[in-house]
């Protein structure tokens, strides 16, 4: 499956946020999206998911234009920047509703094995983030959008999430954005930089310095 | 399908008691089905507005991940709420 997002124009009042965006996702590949704060990364993910309506956009799947929001077609799952699961939900209910396998989860994250009957708002922010990231990654949809999956979580969990992403990518097209750029670069097959409302494909990490995303000699 | 329905009920749960309190007021002051439907419609619009204007809005992503649009979610909440309220109204009217 090839998913293309093209001709995106997004305005907030008169402020142009996105203009001339092109992104290509592909099953079996992880696409990384980097950009400064406020560059429109999260908006772009929301547009692809279907939760945000821009002025213009064109989404193609295998060359065919799609009009309906992708979430409506149940082919996509999205991890937003902030917690999205209902606060008073029990973890076991979450796993039931999203049809997830608790045993598989605890095989990856042994420390969580006693949490099954707990409510999500009784977990720490990082622990909740781990569960939400796992839940989104394991959904049946063929497209996965991850907005800052590495933020606020322990390095040990970052490594586990990275290995989960790598194992899931064989059946899915994954788009990931995070300020932990080293982790993003580490796992992505294609890298884009969102700069001045446009996407630029990055072929070499040094280009990130050219576009002033990183300080010179950071890499 | 059943999981989606259960998710909608989960969304409705925190509003259930408030809605029942409104139903009791309807029974006391104007025990008619039309009043009940109109009030519940206004109540659903209020919940939709409240959700959109507060941080609760981002929780709608959870339902979208299950393939439930915001419109579908609130329509389903309205139908469930109205159905429960009319049932309660008719049962109580039968005993009065």
Write up this protein.
The complex is a heterodimer of chains A (219) and B (96). Chain A has 219 residues and is an alpha/beta fold. Chain A contains seven helices and ten strands. In chain A, helix 4 runs parallel beside helix 5. The longest helix of chain A is centred in the C-terminal third of the chain and has 14 residues. Chain A is globular and about 45 Å long. The mean pLDDT of chain B is 92. Chain B is built from four helices and no strands. In chain B, helix 1 crosses helix 2, helix 1 crosses helix 4 and helix 2 packs antiparallel against helix 4. By secondary structure, chain B is mainly α. At the A-B interface, helix 2 of A face helix 1 and helix 3 of B.
Write the layout of secondary structure elements.
The complex is a heterodimer of chains A (219) and B (96).
Chain A: E1 2-12, E2 15-26, E3 30-35, H1 41-49, E4 56-61, E5 64-66, E6 76-79, H2 91-97, H3 102-108, H4 125-137, E7 143-147, H5 155-168, E8 173-177, H6 181-187, E9 190-195, E10 198-202, H7 207-210
Helix pairs in contact in A: 4-5
Chain B: H1 2-29, H2 33-53, H3 60-64, H4 70-95
Q: What is the structure about, briefly put?
A:
The complex is a heterodimer of chains A (219) and B (96). With 219 residues, chain A is α/β, with parallel strands linked by helices.
State the secondary-structure class of chain B: mainly alpha
Structural class computed from helices and strand pairing of chain A? alpha/beta
Strand order of the largest sheet of chain A: 6-7-8-3-9-10
* Sheet having the most strands of chain A: 6 strands, mixed
Task: Tell me the series of helices and strands of chain A, N- to C-terminal.
Answer: EEEHEEEHHHEHEHEEH
CATH architecture of chain A: 3-Layer(aba) Sandwich
User: How widely separated are the two ends of chain A?
Assistant: 33 Å
Low-confidence stretches of chain B: none
Number of domain modules of chain A? 1
* Radius of gyration of chain B, whole Å: 14 Å
User: Mean of the pLDDT scores of chain A?
Assistant: 93
How many individual β-strands of chain A? Answer: 10
Helicity range of the residues of chain B? over 70%
DSSP strand tally of chain B:
0
Greatest chain-chain contact: A-B, 25 and 16 residues
- H/I helix tally of chain A: 7
Q: What characterizes the major β-sheet of chain B?
A: none
Look at the structure and give the CATH class of chain A: Alpha Beta
Output mean pLDDT of chain B: 92
Low-confidence stretches of chain A: none
């Amino acid at each position: 499956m090839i998913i293309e997002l093209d001709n995106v124009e997004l305005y907030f009042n008169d402020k142009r946020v996105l203009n001339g965006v092109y992104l290509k996702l592909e099953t079996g590949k992880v696409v990384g999206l980097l950009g400064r704060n406020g560059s429109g990364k999260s908006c772009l993910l929301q547009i692809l998911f279907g939760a945000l309506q821009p002025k213009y956009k064109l989404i193609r799947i295998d060359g065919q234009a799609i009009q309906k929001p992708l979430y409506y077609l149940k082919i996509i799952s999205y991890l937003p920047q902030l917690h999205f699961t209902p606060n008073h939900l029990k973890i076991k209910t979450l796993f039931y509703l999203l049809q997830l396998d608790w045993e598989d989860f605890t095989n990856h994250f042994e420390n969580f094995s006693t949490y099954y009957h707990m409510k999500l708002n009784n977990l720490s922010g990082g622990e909740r983030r781990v569960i939400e990231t796992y839940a989104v990654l394991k959904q049946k949809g063929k497209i996965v959008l991850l907005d800052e999956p590495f933020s606020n979580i322990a390095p040990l969990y970052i490594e586990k999430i990275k290995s989960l992403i790598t194992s899931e990518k064989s059946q899915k097209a994954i788009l990931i954005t995070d300020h932990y750029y080293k982790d993003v670069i580490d796992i992505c097959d294609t890298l884009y930089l969102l700069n001045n409302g446009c996407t630029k494909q990055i072929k070499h990490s040094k280009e990130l310095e050219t576009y002033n995303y990183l300080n010179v000699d950071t890499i | 399908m059943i999981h989606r329905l259960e998710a909608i009920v989960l969304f409705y749960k925190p509003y259930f008691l408030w809605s029942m309190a409104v139903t009791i007021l309807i029974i006391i002051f104007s025990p008619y089905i039309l009043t009940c439907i109109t009030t519940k419609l206004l109540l659903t619009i209020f919940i939709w507005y409240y959700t959109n204007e507060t941080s609760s809005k981002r929780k709608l992503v959870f339902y979208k991940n299950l393939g439930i649009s915001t419109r579908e979610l609130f329509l389903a909440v309205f139908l469930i709420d109205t159905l429960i309220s009319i049932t309660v109204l008719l049962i109580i009217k039968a005993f009065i």
